[in-house]
User: What shape does this take?
Amino acid sequence: MPDFFSPCPRGLEALLLADLTTLGAQNARSTEGGVNFSGDWALCYRANLESRIASRILWRVKETQYHSEKDIYQAAFELQWQRWFDVTHTIRVNTTAIRCPLKSLEFITLLVKDAVCDCFRTHCNERPSVDTVDPDVRIHVFIEDNKLMLYLDTSGDALFKRGVRQHTNIAPIRENLAAGILRLMNWQPGTPLLDPMCGSGTFLIEAAQISLNIQPGIARSFAFEKLKNFDAAMWDKMRQQAIAAQLPVKPLELYGSDLYGDALKAASLNLEQAGLAECVQLKQANVLEISAPAEHGMLVANLPYGERMGELDELAELYPKLGDALKKKFGGWTAYLFTADKAILKLMRLSPSKRTPLFNGAIECRLLEYKIVSGSNRPKTGSL
Assistant: This one.
């Protein structure tokens, strides 16, 4: 039975572990930044198609100890790559490491690339070409201390690339992180959801797809389709079943707004291209001026990251005003603010009921939960 590793945004490992276990993964165990598991190829296909949290599904083809660069070359050369993909397919090698005693990861990447090409030359009298931009096959090298692991990527493009969001703003949130945040919020289809700083619409598209049971990978292709063991009949049946299980597109209680018209236009185009324009109500508005679109619901926002001094000053002004606007207009709602700025904790004038650490790429962030009570969220004090 093949062994796999699925990386995900840090902080979402428990959600991914639960998802993969539900899909039938065996020996599943989480580690920092992902989940190791075993399963058959049907599970691999399904995880690529259905996981909203995974970043990739990597097939582990080798795990061994090494002592030198020569050992790494030999370990890669001994694998029968020609049994897994065709020499006409282009390749790319990626190397990551933790506590690696070797001097150069770039050299390791070149070594493994040479080993794969030499293997093909030995068995096929020709070698695959390298394509670092859009390869057919991605090979991942992972080194931890003196342990070497080699993986074949079954996903291709990262799984957060759903194939539906074509237009992005300056600091878009990745789709799998957005889906994870919706899960951490315990948001359920049918609960009104507002993103008042919606940018290119990532939270709204994820929520619409969840509501209509549209699988995240249904609009894209995967690298496993290029492997020699690909079962086209099984994959086609899986896709057709997923399409048949989708619910009809209809208006949903999903609301988005943004201060900037360009961002709203991007969100509108993305929803249109995903076939979800009917599901979401969009309008141009200032987050400090909008009203709650329903009596109860959930608000989610990916707050802007201040990198320059002027932006930090603007955010310091925004936070207390945002706290006041939530208290005045969103009583009975629960707000979830995603931010890398720790200053918000003092400046919002609201006490978060929960703080969940998450990473947006390498940036450490917090998902802050605020249960909004009209007027104030702080306990009143009186004199005796």
Remarks:
- The chain has two domains: 3-153, 175-216+247-371.
- The radius of gyration is 23 Å.
